[in-house]
Amino acid sequence: MNEAKQPLLEVRDLRVRMRSRDGSGELQVLNGVSFGVDRGQTLGIVGESGCGKSTTALAIMQLLPGSARVNGGTIRFAGEDLLAKTEQDMSRLRGARLSMIFQDPMVALDPLFTVGDQIAEPLRRHMRLSGQQLRERQVSLLQSVNIPSPETRLGQYPHQMSGGMLQRMVGAIAISCNPELLIADEPTTALDPTAQAQFLDLLARLRDAHRLALIVVTHDFGVTARLCDVVLVMYAGTVVECGPVREIFDNPRHPYTQALLAAIPQRERQARLKTIEGQPPDLARLPAGCAFAARCARAVDRCRERAPPSLSVGSHHVAACWRAEDA
Amino acid sequence: MVAPVLVFGLFGPWIWPHDPTAIDLARTKLPPAWLPGGDWRYLLGTDGFGRDVLSTLIDGARVTLIVAVVGALGSALIGVTIGLVAGFYGGKLDALAMQLADVKMSIPATLLIILLGSAIGGGLLTIVLSIVLLFWASFARVIRGQTLTLRERGYVALARVANCSDYWIITRHILPNLLATCIVLITIQIGRAIVTEAGISFLGLGVQPPDSAWGLAVSQGRNFLATAWWIPTFPGVAITVTCLGSNMLGDWLRDALDSRASTL
Amino acid sequence: MLTYFLRRAARAVLTLIGISIVVFVIARLSGDPSLQLAPEDATPAELAQIRAELGLDKPIPVQYLVFVERVAHGEFGNSIRYQQPALPLVLSVLPATLQLGLSAFVLSTVAGVLLGVVTALKRGSWMDSATRGLAVIGQAAPSFWIGMMLILLFSVQLHWLPSSGRLGLEHMMLPTLALALNSVAVVLRLTRASMLETLSSDYVRFLRAKGVPRRLIVWKHALRNSSIPVVAVLGVQLGHLIGGAVIVETVFNWPGVGRLMVEALNARDFAVIQAGALLVSFFTVGANLSVDLLFGVIDPRIRYE
Question: pTM of the full predicted structure?
Fold first, then answer.
């Protein structure tokens, strides 16, 4: 990370509260998340379901559902405080300077309108294109994501295309107005393996071509290995470890990261899959100490009493663990 | 909300303050008690024959409710059966059932009533028959849809593998699951049936005097709209409130049964 | 698209046949027509002769075919009351009913959808609660009673609007309102629920992520998607409105098919009743078919089925 100047996106101590699904109370789904991303960099956010990684992504875009609200922290994008912006201001930024793509391409597009119409929307809005210019740009966008016969495709409807092709189209839409930041929330989870590989390659290409700051939210370490420079591991709404991808893979310091990596099925014949014992904590009743303590093999009293801060364990490598040094 | 109406309906014969059929020509067209000229013994006023409006309301409640309930149950019986068969067996039976429903839905309700009434005259039978004919399709549609879904469930497949008869599968596996929907539907249809009965009586095809029913009261009161507005107004209020109550009860039941089902 | 239309049209034809069967069967329920037409002291021989004349001695399916053939030629017999052919009689009053029914349809659709969208956007506000409260009442109240209450308020008490007849625009207002109220309520609630669901869907989220302005999201995307279940209901609503027009006409003395039918009912004028029932039903089938076509226009997925 470049420490001399401000990173493009800087998230500090972000906290988000959400009403629980049955309406009975509130959960603190994000509990002090901090990180930064710069242009040309790729950050991967990993963790199990419910750890808050998608919430983080949505919070940056200010697309949190109505039941959630930010109750602490700051999000600075190119020096501006996103949390202070009105919905109108944000809608001008979204698509133009920061963009997001989601997991399931089949439901990402309005089934009643042609694909071409939906590609054109941000182009009209942010770049004020129309007529011939608009059409040319639409076609070139589709070509840049390897979609054959683009002119025909423009007049088609989402239900007439495969998931892989739709997701590529979604990617094209996302970068159509040359944003500086792109967030991809589980972009390959809904795709079949071939389409997954294709799409990851596409993402890498787009990132390099546009010098994007890229954030990839995923539960799959393989995706991070392929795309990311830096990895952020989340657990129960907090960052437990963060560092360069090689470091994290070769030298994980937090017990949770270690357990996650150990749980990845090896190619060789394996007797049993390793799992992590226990369940993630109830976000309505977070323990006073480290959130992982109940499931941690190395937990001591100190862990249960006070939540550990992020401690440096290497160059650009931090881990939130009292016992990070002894690996 | 439904409670007061139910009370009226069930206990009507015992609690009306006056004999609803007692004609007292000396006291015709008295306004409701709170208006000048009113009399607190006749809370809602009297009608053209001197009958107490409140009493006729209560009396009418009985007939109205009975007709509505019988009609709703009758149409439920037919509709559920057809829907079940259509959903379970599919194919030609299903197509036939849906075509029948289409036919029914293309004939405007009032016209069907008039058509029927012209053929077999008026009276209670006409009302019940009309309600059954008008409402069966709603039941059939919904039940058919549900049966289609339930048919694909795991336990039905298991039952088939175990060579259970169709009858067994239907009665033991599918019907109980439909029960909740049926109850909700019937509750709501009772309200609609009351309004329908009102319409039928309004046309003169329903309950005949001296029996009273709410729709009839509104119709009879029409001539007094300008002079004695309370005569047609209160029966209409009764109809609206009851229908409203049944709708709300149905909605509440739906929520209650839904949440139970999802926690099972 | 063409196959979709053809399939729907085929079903419509089947429905029309079904309706004619129903009308025929119910008409026959009223007993032996020969008894009604014959003088009271007719001998059995005379009765038999009348029956033969009317074709009643032939088997029922043949009678039905005869009936269909006559209907196809527009022959329903003569109105007992007016001593004129029934069909032209009905046709002469049909425009009045259509005027009432269609304006109520337009009113209920436009008002229902608009109010539905607005209450969905302003969910939880007092306006939302008040409108929904009114809608709930509007659904429960019988239309003829509403008509009478409207007359009470606007004609008797306030003397703003006339209570009967069909002369000018002001004559149309109260009947249309009375007729439409129930429908407005249904359309409103459905639109609102559909809108709320659409607004929380994934593609709306992506639209926001693209930076599409809220105005476009609501009126271009959400409205069209939410209208799908509403359009499905519109066809049924039209049927209800036409049926309801019959009753409302009686209340307001509106010279349409409804009033004619009620008079025919009292006079046991079967020819007119049959003609009216068939004609209006055919019209309803046509209207439903149009609604089905509208479906195809709105939702491309159906077109490519």
Answer: 0.79
